[in-house]
Design brief:
Helices cover 42% and strands 11% of the residues. It has helices at residues 8-16, 20-32, 37-42, 49-57, 100-110, 134-137, 152-163, 167-170, 173-177, 206-219, 224-236; strands at 35-36, 63-69, 75-81, 126-130, 147-151. The N and C termini lie far apart (69 Å).
Length: 239
């Protein structure tokens, strides 16, 4: 679909986007009709393609996901503009930028801690994230209760999991409210799957203990998670 076949109001919205990452995606789709995860990585150097696509969706622009075969014959994700009539009118100006004031309030409330890993990080390494994904809940209020602080790794994991969740299509906020990625302190499921998880990080002097754990797991021919579970089961069932 060329520029001429898009409604004028849709083109006006596309051209109004100035941020580099969503603008790059938009320009590519306008020129080629679609963009793939391979394009995003190899041409533009984006190692987390879904984040770049999310940037576009957060501007209220409808994006459809489909599958194509890449140069190695593997099935990969590709993206194109959706129905222009599906522009989210309440979000034409895109997501409100997070303020330093909001981050300060979150740090005061949650500490300089990643809500997923429950470990401390430098302030510059913590990112503000909606508890309920923007694509499902829209823009929240400025209440710190509706946001969380995540390190970059946790934010990427949450983004990937949410975008591959059935609720990404259903858009039922209640599903998000009971999900680990929104409220890891109290949840019933992870991305609508009957799963519970605990993330453990070893830092500083603890790394030496992790290496001991890794060697012990290797000797028993188990993965580290399986070995840790075994140790916990023995401890919990110890009489």
């Amino acid at each position: 679909m060329s520029d001429k076949t898009y409604p004028s109001h849709f083109l006006a919205l596309l051209k109004s986007i100035k941020a580099k990452r969503p603008r790059t995606v938009i320009q590519h789709i306008l020129e080629y009709g679609q963009i793939t995860t391979e394009d995003l990585k190899n041409i533009y150097g984006y190692n987390h393609p879904p984040r770049a696509i999310r940037d576009v969706r957060e501007q209220g622009i409808p994006i459809e996901t489909f599958r194509v075969t890449n140069s190695d014959g593997r099935s990969i994700a590709a993206y194109k503009f959706g129905d222009p009539s599906q522009i989210r009118a309440t979000q034409l100006s895109g997501r409100t930028a997070f303020s330093s004031k909001l981050k300060a309030r979150l740090i005061e409330k949650q500490g300089m801690c990643c809500a997923i890993y429950l470990e401390s990080f430098p302030e510059t390494s913590l990112q503000i994230d909606h508890r309920i994904p923007f694509e499902i809940g829209g823009e929240n209020t400025d209440s710190p209760n509706e946001y969380m602080l995540l390190c970059a790794s946790a934010n990427r994991k949450k983004s990937w999991s949410c975008q591959h969740c059935q609720n990404w299509v259903l858009k039922n906020i209640d599903n998000c409210l009971s999900c680990y990625w929104a409220y890891p302190e109290s949840y019933q499921h992870i991305a609508m799957q009957k799963i519970h998880r605990t993330d453990i990080i070893w830092t500083g002097d603890e790394v030496a203990e992790y290496k001991k754990l890794k060697n012990a797991a290797k000797q028993t021919k188990q993965s580290i998670p399986s070995y840790i579970k075994q140790l916990l089961y023995k401890h919990l069932n110890k009489k």
